[in-house]
Amino acid sequence: MKKMTVLISTFALFLSIAATGFAADTIKLGVAGPHSGDLAPYGIPAMKAAQLVVKKINANGGVLGKQVELLIQDDQCKPEIATNTATKLVTDGADVVLGHICSGATKAALGIYKDAKIPVMSPSATNPPLTQSGDYPNFFRTIASDDMQAKMAVDFAINKLGVKKVAVLHDKGDYGKGFAEFAKKYLDESGKVEVVLYEGITPGAMDYSSIVAKLGRYKAEALIFGGYHPEASKLVSQMQRKRLKTIFISDDGVKDDSFLKVAGDAANGAYVTGPQDLSSIPLNAAATAEFKAEYGAEPGAFYQEGYSAALALLNAIEKAGSTDYDAVTKVLRTEYVETPVGKIKFDSKGDAEGVGFSVYKVENGAFTELK
Amino acid sequence: MEYFLQLFFGGLTRGSIYALIALGYTMVYGIIQLINFAHGEIYMIGAFVALIVAGVCTIYGLSGVSILILAGVIAIIYSCAYGYTLEKVAYRPLRGAPRLSPLISAIGMSIFLQNYVLLAQTPDFLPFPRLIPDFDFMEPVAHIIGSPELVILITTVVTMILLTLLIKKTRVGKAMRATQQDMNMARLVGVNVDRIISLTFIIGSALAAIGGVLVASYIGQVNFYIGFLAGVKAFTAAVLGGIGSIPGAVLGGLVLGWAESFAAGYISSDYEDVFTFGLLVLILILRPAGILGKSHKQKV
Fold first, then answer.
1. How far apart are CA B126 and CA B221, in angstroms?
2. Which end of chain B is more exposed for a tag (fewer CB within 10 A), N or C?
3. Within this chain, do residues A216 and A153 fall inside the same structural domain, yes or no?
4. Distance, CA of B208 to CA of A140 (rounded, Å)
5. Given this model, what pLDDT does residue A18 score?
C-alpha cells in the first residue's frame, strides 16, 4: 500500500515537471476583461480579437519560434474581481497582458502587474491618470484617453453647436466621472459657456426623473454625460418623455449598439465621441473580414483596438528577442508597428501616438461620423 | 412650483412602484417572519415575461394598450407560479428550521434566479416596448406628469384598493389575518395555514409582477439585474414603514420615493442615497419598528 502511494506521488511529480517543461515553450498572452455580466459586450470582442491574432501568428510559426498560448480571465469589469484576475494571470506566468477593459478594473489590477514586471496593454481603458500619472510604467493603451475625448466633445458643443448653458452629469464611476471632470474643466476654461449643473447620478436607479426635471429647471441647452449606455438610454428616453429639447452629448461608453437598440428613436439626434472611423486602413478592413469569416457577425466594441494591442504586444516580444520586461517596453516605445488603428508607437507615458477621436451623430438609428 | 410638481410626481411614481414591491416583502414577513430576498427577482421575471409576450403580440399585430393588458396578465400568472414554487421548494421544507436557514435559502434562490435569467435570456440590456401610449389629453402637462406616470399611479391605486378589500372583506383575507396573528391558533380553528402561506406568496408575486411590467414600460429597458436593486429599495421601504404592516409598506414606499426625488432635485443627486438611507436611520432611531410598525413583545 505504502509503495503504491510513493509510486503514485513520484508519478505525479514527474507529471508536474513535465507540465512546467512544456509551459516554458510557449509565449503566454494574458487576456483580461468582462466576458460575462452586463458589460460583457465591451470585453468579448477584444478577447475574440486576441484569439484570431494568436491563431494567425501560431499558424505562421509563432513568436520567436514558440507558439503563443492564451490565458483568458473574466474580470466582469469589477475592480475587486480584477485584482484576483491579475493575480491569477501572474501566477499562471503570463508574459504580457491584453486588458483590462474597464478603467476601474484596469486601475485595480495594474499594481499587481507592475510588481510582477508584466507589460499591460488595454484596448479600451481611457481614464487619463492611468498613463498621465506616471504611476504605471508597465501600462500602454491603443485608445486615446478621456481628456482628449472630453476636449473633442466640448469643442464640438461650443464651436459647432454654439450652446451657452451646459449641464455635465456622470455615473460616479472612474470612467464616466473622469470624462465629466475633464469636460467641466475645458468648459470652464473656454469662458464662453456656463456650466449650469454638475452632478453624479446613481447607476441602476429606477428612473432619472428628478435629474431630468433639473435639466429643464436650469434651461440647459446641452447635456454632456460621462458614463455607459444603460444610464444613457434611460436619460434620453426620459428626456424625450418630458419633452426636453436638451442636446445629448456623451462618450465612447455610450457609442454602442445597445444604446441604439434600447433607447430607440429617443437616441436620434444624440452625439457621442468615439475612436475615429478607421475602415480606410487596409489592416482594419482585413481584421473585420477575418472576424466575419470566423463568427459571421459584426465585431463589436474595441475589437480593432484589441486586435491592435495583441499585434503590438506580440510584435514587441518578437523584436525584443525575449519576453524580458525592459526589452519589450523599450520596443513598444521606440518601434512603429502596423495595426488596424494605424501605424503606431507609444509615447513615454504609454499612450499610442496617432490615435484619436471623432464625433458621431445618431441618425435613423445608426452612428454617423461627422467630419 | 412647476419644478416642485415635477419632483412630487416623479417621487410619487417611483414610490408607488416601491410600495407595490414592498407589499410582497411585508406580507410574507407578517406571516412567517421571513425576509424573502428572492422577491426582487420575481419582479424582474415579471418584466421579462411581459417582454416576451409583448414581442409575440407585436408579431400578431396587436396594438399598445391591448398588449400591455395581455402581457401584464400573463406576467402576473407566470410570476405567481414562480412565487408559489419558490415557497414550495425553498421555504416550506424549512418551516420548522431556525430562522436563519430560510433566510440563507432566500438569498440562494435570489442568486439562482438572477443567473438563470442571465443564462436563459441574456446578460445584455434589452429594449422594452413603450406599451403605454402618450394620451392626447395629457399633452399640455406632459412635461410635469406624463401618460406612463398617470397609468402607473392609477394602476397602483386600484391594486391597493383591491388588496385592501381582499384582506378586510373576504374569508381568505380573514384567514390571512388570523394566520398573521397566531399561526397555531389559526390552525386549531381550521384554517389551512399552508394554503394561506402559499396564497400570500402568490399575491406578493402578482404585485411584484405588476410593478415590473409598469416600470419596464415606463423606462423602456430590462436586464437580469434590475430585480436586485429594486428589491433592496423596496425592502428598505418595507422596513421604513414598519415591516409586517401593509399600510406601512405603502407609506414607506412613498416616503422613500419622495425622499429620493426631493433630495436629488433640491440638493444633489450625488447624495440621493445618502439622504434616503440617512432618513431610514433617523426613523429607525425614533421609531425602531418603523413608521406604522408595532413592536411586539417576544412570545414565550
1. 6
2. C
3. yes
4. 48
5. 46
What cell numbers appear for B234 in the block? 423596496
Which residues in chain B touch residue A199, judged by CB atoms under 8 angstroms apart?
A: 268-270
Q: Sort out which chain B residues have CB atoms less than 8 A from A230's CB and list them.
A: 125, 221, 223
Same domain, yes or no: A183 and A195: yes
> Is residue B171 predicted with pLDDT exceeding 90?
yes
Sign of dihedral through CA atoms A136, A137, A139, A144? positive
Grid cell in block for residue A162: 454654439
B29-68: pLDDT as tens digits: 999 889 999 999 999 999 999 999 998 988 888 877 888 9
Residues A181 and A225 in one domain: yes
CA atoms within 13 A on the CB side of B117: 29
A226 pairs with which residues across the strands?
A170
In a domain, B216, yes or no: yes
Query: What pLDDT score does A20 carry?
Result: 46
My answer on whether A96 and A83 are in the same domain is yes
3-state secondary structure A249-285: EECCCCCCHHHHHHHHHHHCCCEEEEECCCCCCHHHH
Residues A243 and A155 in one domain: yes
Question: B10, A217: Cβ pair inside 8 Å?
Answer: no
Range of the domain at B132: 2-227
Contact A207 B218 (CB under 8 A): yes
Domain of A201 in residue numbering reads as 147-251
**What residues pair up with A68 in beta bridges, in sequence order?**
A27
What is the total count of domains within chain B? 1
Low-confidence ranges of chain A (pLDDT < 70): 1-24
pTM equals 0.76
- The ipTM (two decimal places) reads 0.89
A215 and A291 in one domain?
A: no
Q: Please say if the pLDDT value at position B124 is more than 90.
A: no
- The answer to whether position A96 is within a domain reads yes
CA separation (Å) from A158 to A71, A178, A206, A220, A221? 45, 20, 32, 13, 11
pLDDT at A10: 57
Q: Do A205 and B229 touch (CB under 8 A)?
A: yes
Would you say residue B116 lies in a domain?
A: yes
Which domain CATH number covers A136? 3.40.50.2300
Give the dihedral of Cα atoms B82, B88, B94, B95; nearest 10 deg: 110
Q: Let me know if residue A361 belongs to a domain.
A: no
